[in-house]
Amino acid sequence: MIKVGDRLPATTLMEYHEVEGPGCSVGPNPVPVVEATAGKTIALFALPGAFTPTCSARHLPGYLQKADEFKAAGVDEIWCISVNDAFVMGAWAREQKSAGKLRLLADGDATFTKATGLTLDLSGKGLGLRSNRYSMLVRDGKVVTLNVEAPGQFEVSGADRLLAQAKG
Fold first, then answer.
1. CATH T-level assignment (fold) for domain 12-167
2. What sign does the CA torsion over 108, 112, 115, 116 have?
3. Span 23-27, average pLDDT
4. Do 37 and 143 meet the contact criterion of CB atoms below 8 Å apart?
5. Residue 80 is among the residues annotated as catalytic for this protein
6. Membrane spanning segments where (predicted)?
7. Catalytically annotated residue among 13, 14, 44, 55
8. How many CB atoms lie within 10 A of CB 167?
């Protein structure tokens, strides 16, 4: 399992864009993790699935509500990663009104999640291999803090805790 002091895996996530922008076409666009984190401070949180109850009602909204406070604490970007495809993450971003505040990144085949060792097998519940729920502060691609939840819990990976760590 990834730990404090480790570098994020050299994988590629996908991000859905609603409108064309500099270097980004409409639709899914690759986000090479190493390049995208270089020289930046990232508040990263991961969760089992878009549109799922705790993820939609508590986990993501906490980061959305605190986005300005994260920026004030020196965080360049807030990333939400889930083992979903880019179209689902794009729809969830639209539904959550997160544009300009959070980057909802798809790990469709769980390459990033497997490389971090933070998988959660929900096959018995019909969801297959997913990401565990966690948060981390990343500086220049290196993990500075890591908060991993026990299966089925939401106690240590919320926005308040990671924000305190970013300020600390």
1. Glutaredoxin (3.40.30)
2. negative
3. 76
4. no
5. no
6. none
7. 55
8. 12
